[in-house]
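Backbone-to-sequence.
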């Protein structure tokens, strides 16, 4: 099947230029002024931006223990509506740490996902460390661990994991918050009977991330391994990563839309609905993270989509420790970055492409199959109306949980069409794709950079 996308604008060297994109059998055949003599489908993208589909490198889409929160079909429908064409599914609670568990999750994804996907393994510790070799052989080369509860890994475990992942051309993916700081603060909060939402902000303050990032970066430098830091939330964490890169430490890092748009003050209004881990920080941290995305010290933005239903959130008004920590975010990620980033001149479109498409694909070994509009790449394409303004309504989004922390926000810049390997799966606010066409995309070690 041959499809031509005509009259759209693409980015070349930071400039928007008019171009046609020809797609044949799911691959990009050409990008430029050429137009085929015959085709099966014509898509007119006049006045719109034609962008490589987003690669969301950290989303909790599927956990069989929590079918009330999300599943592959609902989660990837939301992803498609948000311009995400590939998601790397992150472990939540059910372990993904053996070959059998990897294969089970792949089968589930290929059966029920609307978009292509890859996987992170986890939660990693000394007991499942011997499985890294066989898991990596399947093309799962990112292994998640924690420096804090509930999956705390001590220094010996962290070093063992760094060595083993490096042995098999893989990356250690770390949730970095300091366990000792968290424990001390939690004890003090309990002494004062603090169960209000704002107590969560005091549990793991900026210092907790700073200490943990500093430690894991130092261990990575010592062992010459590869490290990826999940969901950075502080200026200090970003600064440590920036300095490490100057010393050629093999470290990459991500942040998320919520750390770019909300601060701890917003919990006064939204309370447990903004409980997440790490917690929200200050406006200074928000501003620093935008700057770090511009200069490349923070590599990518991920949704860290981790929804809980209303019941799991509401209990937090009385006892924040009982509320689920996570928010739905994959469908609004691109509109938020366009509205709050591009239109407010915090980042430009070239930076957006780098942090949401190219760089995540490169870090996790999916490039150039994913993350770019080049000849031979998968035809994963999102068409964006940069002028379209829409008020966010949770009931109109595709999340299973039916709510969003961005309720009533007016966002400018929305996808109008999403295509995965040449198939249109979302158009004009409607999901039109069918499940069953998704593919598991292995991480290629030689392409991880």
């Amino acid at each position: 099947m041959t499809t031509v996308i005509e009259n759209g604008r693409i980015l070349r060297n930071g400039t928007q230029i008019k171009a046609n994109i020809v797609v044949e059998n799911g691959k990009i055949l050409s990008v430029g002024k050429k137009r085929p003599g015959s085709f099966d489908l014509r898509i007119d993208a006049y006045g719109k931006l034609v962008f490589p589909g987003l690669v969301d490198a950290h989303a909790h889409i599927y956990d069989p223990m929590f079918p009330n929160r999300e599943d592959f079909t609902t989660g990837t429908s939301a992803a498609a509506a948000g311009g995400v064409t590939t998601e790397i599914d992150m472990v939540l609670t059910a372990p993904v740490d053996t070959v059998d568990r990897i294969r089970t999750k792949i089968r589930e994804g290929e059966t029920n996902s609307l978009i292509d996907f890859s996987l992170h393994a986890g939660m990693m510790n000394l007991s499942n460390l011997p499985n890294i070799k066989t898991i990596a052989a399947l093309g799962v080369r990112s292994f998640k661990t924690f420096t804090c509860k509930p999956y705390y890994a001590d220094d010996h475990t962290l070093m063992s994991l760094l060595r083993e992942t490096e042995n098999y051309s893989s990356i250690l993916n770390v949730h970095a918050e300091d366990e000792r700081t968290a424990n001390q603060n939690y004890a003090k909060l309990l002494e004062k009977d603090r169960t209000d939402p704002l107590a969560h902000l005091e549990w793991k303050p900026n210092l907790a991330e700073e200490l943990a990032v500093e430690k894991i970066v130092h261990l990575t430098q010592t062992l010459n391994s590869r490290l990826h830091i999940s969901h950075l939330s502080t200026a200090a964490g970003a600064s440590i990563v920036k300095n490490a890169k100057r010393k050629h430490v093999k470290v990459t890092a991500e942040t998320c839309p919520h750390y770019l748009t909300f601060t701890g003050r917003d919990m006064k209004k939204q309370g447990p609905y903004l409980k997440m881990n790490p917690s929200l920080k200050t406006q200074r941290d928000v501003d620093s993270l935008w700057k770090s995305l511009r200069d490349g010290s923070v590599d990518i933005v991920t949704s860290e989509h981790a929804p809980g239903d209303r019941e799991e959130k509401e209990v937090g008004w009385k006892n924040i420790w009982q509320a689920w920590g996570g928010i739905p975010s994959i469908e609004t990620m691109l509109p938020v970055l366009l509205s709050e980033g591009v239109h407010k001149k915090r980042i430009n479109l070239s930076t957006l492409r780098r942090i949401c498409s190219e760089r995540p694909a490169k870090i996790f070994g999916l490039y150039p199959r994913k993350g770019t509009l080049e000849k031979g790449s998968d035809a994963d394409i999102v068409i964006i109306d940069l002028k379209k303004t829409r008020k966010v309504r949770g009931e109109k989004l595709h999340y299973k949980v039916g709510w969003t922390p961005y309720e009533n926000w007016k966002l400018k810049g929305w996808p109008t069409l999403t295509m995965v390997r040449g198939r249109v799966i979302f158009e004009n606010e409607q999901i039109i794709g069918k499940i069953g066409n998704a593919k598991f995309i292995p991480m290629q070690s030689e392409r991880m950079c």
